[in-house]
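A.,

Following up on our hallway conversation. Structure tokens first:
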């Protein structure tokens, strides 16, 4: 695979989607577990918003690796390791992103084991990690304009 440049438009679209999903999570009743689980639609919505935010974040990481470095990554868990190896993410950020990949896999493949209290905890304590990783990727891209394709 050949590096052809990180597509600015793809980055903007993925980041906008992630931010939309994070805002949607914040719009849920997260002031108490009791209120969160009182309506089962909250749990279903949280599951969907979190999963889609994680998938978009991991897809953004794959795009950076493919277009910026010519590295094809097929598994989400590998995205964080490769971003660390490429110098895109710091070790702590890569560790957190790796955990996110694992949680995305849990939401998709072990959905029947994800409990409402667990999902509530993720929404209240860990969704901010998504924003932190987005910001780290955004900052890296800003500092490496030579890797960005700004054409439409």
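Then the amino acids I'd put at each of the 152 positions:
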């Amino acid at each position: 695979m050949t590096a052809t440049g990180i597509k600015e438009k793809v980055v903007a679209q993925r980041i906008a989607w992630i931010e939309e999903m994070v805002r949607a999570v914040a719009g849920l009743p997260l002031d108490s577990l009791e209120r969160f689980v009182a309506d089962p639609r909250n749990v279903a919505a949280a599951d969907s918003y979190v999963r889609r935010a994680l998938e978009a974040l991991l897809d953004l990481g794959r795009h950076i690796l493919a277009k910026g470095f010519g590295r094809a990554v097929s598994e989400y868990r590998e995205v964080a390791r490769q971003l660390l190896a490429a110098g895109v993410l710091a070790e702590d950020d890569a560790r957190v992103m790796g955990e996110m990949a694992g949680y995305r896999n849990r939401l998709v493949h072990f959905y029947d084991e994800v409990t409402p209290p667990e999902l509530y905890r993720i929404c209240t304590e860990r969704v901010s990690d998504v924003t932190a990783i987005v910001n780290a990727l955004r900052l890296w891209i800003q500092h490496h304009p030579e890797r960005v394709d700004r054409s439409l």
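Residues 6-144 form a domain with the Four Helix Bundle (Hemerythrin (Met), subunit A) fold (CATH 1.20.120.580). Curious whether your intuition agrees with the design.

B.
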